[in-house]
Amino acid sequence: MSELIRSEIFSLDEYTLQRYPHRIKLNQNENPFELPQDIKAEILERLGAISWSRYPAFIPQRQIDAVAQYAGWVPDGTLLGNGSNDLLQLIFMSVLERNQTVVISQPTFTLYKILARGLAADVVEILMTPDFQFDVDGIIAAARRTEARLVVICSPNNPTGTLMPETDVVRIIEETEGLVVLDEAYVHFAPGSLCHLLMRYDRLIILQTFSKAMGAAGLRFGYALAPVDLAHQLNKIKLPYSVNIFTLVAAEVLLEHWNHLEGWIDTLIRERERVKAGLQKLPQCKVYPSSANFLLFESLRRKPAEVFDLLLKKGILIRNVSSYPMLGRGLRVSTGTPEENTAFLNAIREAL
Ligand code: PMP
User: What's the rounded Cα separation, in Å, for the pair 282 and 290?
Assistant: First the structure.
């Protein structure tokens, strides 16, 4: 069988997340607040009133319009996906082929490299600076040298929390010739989206998701904002009906109620800063600034795996990111509810 699988896929390690029994889940940068029951009930009621035996609309225009309006972009340039991962795959598939290059910064979200490698593309990885800022000159130089088809920027970056300033995003677009994907999965926790740049540049795509600030990771709903011509090309090979009726209805209702829910974000930012201040007080710990809903910190004494295990013994699950480039001492903790964060701060004091 294995000889039937393309060699570049056969040689990949499995992309998986081990399950650990836990009480407090701070390992996947989800929103810890649940959608209120009355909103869930409204979603279920609307689902009860539509047909489940028929396909969704080929073009779910109502939801596209709602997302476009929310995101501040035109409906014709807005693509909906089964999570933003789905759209990442679509973009990579549309742009990359064997021996073509994608430039990414490291450390960053693991999926970019996996998707590119699966397409037999070359991945050029540019390390961040020692204090985890983007090496913008390095990214530009690599993209020019390799005539890269694609540059992927994750901002705020997972797992460092680093924000790329607008001037640097603009430099990368202007000084390179490929497509630039800006993954804004965590943008709600940062000063603002750069989607206004879509008016100026026809080689930019912005990805956002309902999985983080919007509190709906289980829905699997993300979207791409792109110049209309580019969106049109991507739409040609986008799988039809990749967003099911449950998700379409839920996303629509969520947006209708968003003004009652968005207070989540201020709470989470405040909590992130409280956790950061708590970590800063610990001598065995170096914590980095973050524009996302998680914090990267380094354990200066115990090995990250030991710290992870000690927290898990207390029921607290965080992410050991020490296998990422540059992060030999790294751990990442998502921002939870105030009670969860207090429990984390109490436990980490002893674990470090
Ligand atoms: N981009 C980044 C940077 C992420 O961290 C994640 C989730 N871990 C995603 C995209 C995936 O988002 P979605 O749930 O929308 O597929």
Answer: 18
